[in-house]
Amino acid sequence: MNARQPLRFAVEPPASVQLLMDFVNTRPIGARPDMFGEAELASGYLRNCGLDVDLGERELRRVRKLRDALIEALGTDPDDRDAWRAINGLATNTPLKVRFEPGPTSTLSSEDQVVGRILADMGAAIAAGRWTRLHLCANAECRVAFYDTSRSRTQLVALVRDLRQPRERRGTPAPGQIPRNDLSLQDLYGSWLTLVAS
C-alpha cells in the first residue's frame, strides 16, 4: 500500500513539534483519507514520519484514541476536560522514562514507539512553551494542525507549502517585471487543496 507523505507548511515548525502536527494531521482532510483508517496504511504513514513501526489493531485503536483526544485538546476549547482525561488515561498506561544530562537537560522516551513518543513530545512541547503555538486551522474545510509563528500567537489559518514550482502556477514574469513573491490566502488555500487531493 502506498502511504502518503506528511503535510509540509510554508513556515517549517520546530522539529520538536513536527511529529505532533504530522500525528494530528492523519485524520481525513478534504480528499485525503484517514491515515489511521487501517493498520497497514497507518504503519506506512508513521514510517514516513520517521517512526519504525508495524501496528496491529490493538495499537491502532490506542493511536486513534490519542489522535482524537489531541484534536479535541487543540480545538476550540483548550480546557476540554474530556480530551485531557483521555490523554491522561493513555499516559497512565504508557511507560515513559526521563533521562537527565549535564547542562542540565532532560529527555523523555518510551518503548512505545507511537503513543509513548507522542506523549513525550507533548511533554517537551508544553515544557518549552510551544504547545500554545499549536492550533487547528480556523477554516472549517481545512482544520489541519499547524504551528503558529505569529508574535501574538493568534494566527488562524495554516499556510501549507505549495509543492509546485512558482513559475508553473504564476507564469514567467515579463522582461523587466518583478516576480510576484507574495501569496494571497486564496492562493495558499488553493495550493493546499491541490496538495491534499494528490
Explain what the structure shows.
- The chain has helices at residues 15-24, 39-48, 57-74, 81-92, 115-127, 166-170, 185-197, and strands at 97-101, 105-109, 134-136, 145-147.
- With 198 residues, it is mainly α.
- It has a single domain, classed as Orthogonal Bundle (Jann2411-like fold).
- The strands form two sheets. It has a two-stranded antiparallel ribbon with strand order 1-2.
- Strand 3 (134-136) and strand 4 form a beta hairpin.
- Helix 1 (15-24) packs across helix 5 (115-127) and helix 3 runs antiparallel to helix 4.
- The longest helix is centred in the first third of the chain and has 18 residues, at 57-74.
- It is globular.
* CATH architecture label name: Orthogonal Bundle
User: For the residues shown, what is the average pLDDT?
Assistant: 76
Helices and strands, in order, run as HHHHEEHEEHH
The profile of the biggest β sheet is: 2 strands, antiparallel
Q: Largest sheet, order of strands side by side?
A: 1-2
Q: Strand-residue fraction?
A: 5-15%
Q: How many E-type strands? A: 4
Computed over alpha carbons, the radius of gyration is 18 Å
What characteristic shape results from the CA principal axes? Answer: globular
CATH class: Mainly Alpha
> Uncertain runs with pLDDT below 50, 5 residues or more?
161-198
Decide which structural class fits the backbone.
mainly alpha
Number of helical runs?
7
Quaternary structure state of the chains depicted: single chain
Tell me briefly what this model is:
Helix content is 41%, strand content 8%.
